[in-house]
């Protein structure tokens, strides 16, 4: 099914359900977002589930304004909806 991505805004794209609070951190019945496959993969390559909770990235606005994902969002918004880039795992270590 084709929808719009609630993170990058591209459409029409195939979307997946992203639990804004990871299920393993108690988010099974909390809000979700429909994200395109590249955005969903990018979130999970940049952040661990623990990062998402401890950094307060459990809503779309917080995700959109986090310094680690902003460059990606600027780039992906310029890509055709059919683009599904290869995502590499980030080796960036967040300072405590």
From TrEMBL:
Gene3D superfamilies: 1.10.30.50. It comes from the Bacteria. GO terms for molecular function: endonuclease activity. Keywords: Endonuclease, Hydrolase, Nuclease. PANTHER family: HNH DOMAIN-CONTAINING PROTEIN, TUDOR DOMAIN-CONTAINING PROTEIN. This is HNH endonuclease.
């Amino acid at each position: 099914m084709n929808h719009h991505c609630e993170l990058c805004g591209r459409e029409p794209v195939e979307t997946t359900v992203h639990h804004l609070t990871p299920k393993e951190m108690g988010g099974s019945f909390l809000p979700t977002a429909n994200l395109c496959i590249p955005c969903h993969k990018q979130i999970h390559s940049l952040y661990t589930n623990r990062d998402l909770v401890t950094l307060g990235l459990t809503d779309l606005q917080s995700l959109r304004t986090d310094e680690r994902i902003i460059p990606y969002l600027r780039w992906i918004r310029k890509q055709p909806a059919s683009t599904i880039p290869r995502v590499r795992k980030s080796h960036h270590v967040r300072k405590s």
